[in-house]
Amino acid sequence: MLKLTGITKRFGSLVANDHIDLEVSQGEIHALLGENGAGKSTLMNVLYGLYTPDEGTIEWKGRKVDIKSPGQAISLGIGMVHQHFMLIPVFTVAENIVLGSEPRRQGRLDMEKAIADVEAISNRYGLHVDPRAKIENITVGQQQRVEILKALYRGAELLILDEPTAVLTPQEIQELGQIMKNLVAQGRTIIIITHKLKEIRQFADRVSVIRRGKKITTVEAQGKSEAELAALMVGREVVLRVDKTEARPTKTVIQVQGLTVKAESGFPAVRDVSFHVRAGEIVGIAGVDGNGQSELIEAITGLKKSFAGKVLLNGQEITRMPPGQIREAGVGHIPEDRQKRGLVLDFTVAENMVLGSQRKYQTWGLLNYRMMTDLAKKVIEAFDVRPPEPEYMARSLSGGNQQKVIVGREITRQPELMIAVQPTRGLDVGAIEFIHKRLVAERDAGKAVLLVSLELDEVMSLADRILVMYKGQVVAEVAQQDATEEALGLLMAGGGQRG
Amino acid sequence: MDKRLRSALREVTVPVLAIFAGFLVGTIFILAAGKNPLEAYQYFNLYVWGDLSKFGETLVSTTPLIMTGLAIALAFRCGLFNIGAEGQYLVGQVATAWAGFFFTMPAWLPPAVAGFIHPLVAILVGMLAAGLYAAIPGLLKAYRGVHEVINSIMLNYVALFFTHWFLLNRLRDPSGSAATPRIHETADLVQGLIKGSRLHMGIFIALLAAFLVWLFLWKTAAGYEIRSVGFAAGAAEYAGINVKKNIVLAMLLSGSLIGLAAAVQTLGLARKFYEPMGFAGFGFDGIAVALVGRNHPLGVVLAAFLFGALDRGGQGMQAGADVPKTVMWVVQGTVIFFVAAEGLWRFLQNRRSKKEVKPA
Fold it and tell me: Hey, are the CB atoms on A367 and B359 less than 8 Å from each other?
């Protein structure tokens, strides 16, 4: 039914999709499996007309098509449900579903017909939801059904679901599974994007594995164990082995005791987490996105204030101190979101160099731009920032060079504890290797390093000890030499325990 | 240096083109009104800079706009829209006028010293009052999350009715009209810098303020912090910069600059506070000045001069060529429209390029 050939999509120097071939047949549930940033969503956005591929062709029902916009994808019968819903909260279910293709009678909106239409479709596929309810008053699971109904209302024959279970409770996931079975029973086709192994074995007929922009293989979902799927997703051949000697940890630098953090929704995102990091070691936190890593780091660095538990730095409590004081106390932080947190994009590189220590770069009450520029030049040289221009706007640097500015700034501050969150996300291989070396050098200089990454490769090659987070808890601690990709992959997907 | 020059040129191109577009549209309106545009623009020129005294009056119109424009620009640099400038302006006027007639300089002070200290005190009182008044929406925004546009715009009316009541019931000159007593002459800002015009010391105060705002925003750590909050509050927070404190500080400073404008107008021109029948308009015009001036002190000074010239030139066209003054408002509106449209265009462009560059 659908055939993608040689799809390639580049973002600058990053190759998000590298000659991907994919075939999907009618009436199947086809899973796209891959780690975060592997290129699954990019591929589907190409199919849905949000991105134009640099190379490759799309064949739809045996005919070559050129999909330029989502509108065109919809008219071809391709519908997509995004990870973040696109609904209007104050409109009713029916209003949201018909939005943009409203039934009319004598030029006026025929709401009764809209409601009847919606009821007809939802009965046909067992997608029960009250068409008159307002979006803001229904659950997330029901909102997702509305998104699916929206696609079906527009005549979608192929449905793309992007990480559909990320926001659902276990019961809702089961219901979604039933809905998908109903849909394929009525002749629809589904592509589901996911990195959760259990669901693939439960729902999918076939699974295509994507790793670092390349399609690795397509296999029958039932034919593989979770462990085998994990190995395929993560990749056996690890390209990035970091050369490092055995860690010689000394005193404890940071101690986290019984940390419980509530997310915005009030649901505990981190539950009773305790660990410590010693000087001269790298502790890695592995886990799938959204299992509490971000909230944990925000609590430690003072960016989040409401949590229970204690944080001790060199035996001194730094719990709930303002972020500035925690930095002063000796914590460096390479933040998860480099563009929102790590840099002021409209400042120059030199100005960004003193972000957080701007008060120290004053003489006679005025900022000393010469000192700032000198510092910037030093960091630019040591960290190979390109172009080597202190006056360049941070915004105009590539992602990798932006990250080098942040890493350089934080390392130059000489903190006792370096917290690195996703330090190499979206970077090319050269930059990744460089940043890895610098983090190991920090360790060897007797600093404590706490690494949080969604890339299992990265955690395994850098960390001396690995903590696995799942649903807000540290479910396992593994020494580097004992860690295998299969075991960690299983633990990350909740395979190590029930629930 | 070359790069800096080029980026400055890029900043200037759009406002200059917008001004041309504005006058083009103005010309169409003059023609539509059945008047001769050449004659109209002759009078426009005459009134703006036809002779030294006329030019002095243009600068009189420019003076308050520099300071209100700076105030709005400073708040914008912290990501805040101070639309409550009109209310702060009234508060600043009342406070300055009060300090002008309430305090008396001791007789033994040499006149030159008294004539320096009294205006200084009155200006500081006006700045403090308006600054504190502006800090209210700042505090509400920082600690209660109330949007500053909503609460500062509502505080405009609170200020209007409060100053009105306060004047009539507490400050009114019993012998005179509905106004405060005249300020003491020691508090006057000297007029007559140019013979035949009311040009007063205020223009130098305004230019000094522009320089100080530039120095503060770009050359001090406190200004750096305010700008970082405006550009990227998340990054500021991460770096240990107190976002809430800076929001309040920026509003306080913005209000103080409004208070400075009010004080200068009061001490240099009106010399009393008259019963307010509405808003003076300098605060709202300041928004346009900041927009056209790209929120940069130098740009604000130039934009304030443009608006001052449009004001005086419009009067000239009306007096000499019988062209309604409102035509100049059309020119003003067109200039603002094109500058703002450029902002919109750039915003859309950014969004498009972000969408393309960021892998999902």
Answer: no
Own/partner contacts of A289-293, CB < 8 Å, gap of 24 or more, are A289/A36, A289/A454, A290/A166, A291/A469, A291/A470, A291/A471, A291/A472, A291/A492, A292/A261, A292/A469, A292/A471, A292/A472, A292/A473, A293/A421, A293/A452, A293/A469
Which residues from chain B sit within 8 angstroms of residue A324, using beta carbons?
A: 239-242
Cis amide bond preceding A268, omega within 30: no
pLDDT of residue B348: 61
Residues of chain B short of pLDDT 50, as ranges, are: 354-360
> What pLDDT score was predicted for residue B349?
59
- If DSSP codes are grouped into helix, strand and coil, which group holds residue B348? helix
pLDDT digits (tens, 9 = 90+) for A441-499: 999 999 999 999 987 878 988 999 999 998 899 999 999 988 887 788 788 877 655 43
State the nearest Cα–Cα gap between B215 and chain A, in angstroms.
Answer: 8
The dihedral built from the CA positions of residue A469, A471, A472 and A475, taken in this order, carries a sign that is negative
Burial A343-357 (b: 16+ CB within 10 A, else e): bbbebbbbbbbbbbb
Name the A residues in 397-436 with CB < 8 Å from any B CB.
426
Residues sharing a CB contact under 8 Å with residue B83, sequence separation 6 or more, in sequence order = B148, B149, B152, B153, B156, B287
**φ and ψ at A390, to 5 degrees?**
-65, -25
The whole-number pLDDT of residue A266 equals: 74
Between these two residues, A179 and B256, which has the higher pLDDT value? B256
pTM over the 0.80 mark = no
Q: Which value does ipTM take for this structure?
A: 0.84
Q: What count of residues does chain A have? A: 499
Q: How many residues are given for chain B?
A: 360
- Which of the four pLDDT bands, split at 50, 70 and 90, describes residue A167? low
B232:A343 CB<8 A:
yes
* A36-40, A173-177, A408-412, range with greatest mean pLDDT: A408-412
Contact yes or no for A347 and B227 at CB 8 A = yes
> What is the mean pLDDT of the segment spanning A211-231?
83
pLDDT at A239 over 50: no
Q: What residues form DSSP beta bridges with A20?
A: A7
Tell me how close the Cα of A57 comes to any Cα of chain B, in angstroms.
Answer: 20
Dihedral-angle region of residue A6 (phi above 0 means left; psi in -120 to 50 means alpha; beta otherwise): left
pLDDT value of position A230: 73
B359/A14 Cβ within 8 A: yes
Residue A479 distance to chain B (closest CA, Å)? 31
Output DSSP code: residue B185: G
Instruction: Show which residues on chain B lie within 8 Å of chain A, measured between beta carbons.
Output: 3, 215, 218-221, 224-225, 227-228, 231-232, 234-242, 356-360
Res. A231 pLDDT band, cuts 50 70 90: confident
> Taking residues A235-251, what's their average pLDDT?
71
Q: Do A341 and B238 touch (CB under 8 A)?
A: yes
Can you tell me the mean pLDDT for A75-90?
88
Looking at residue A224, its pLDDT comes to: 79
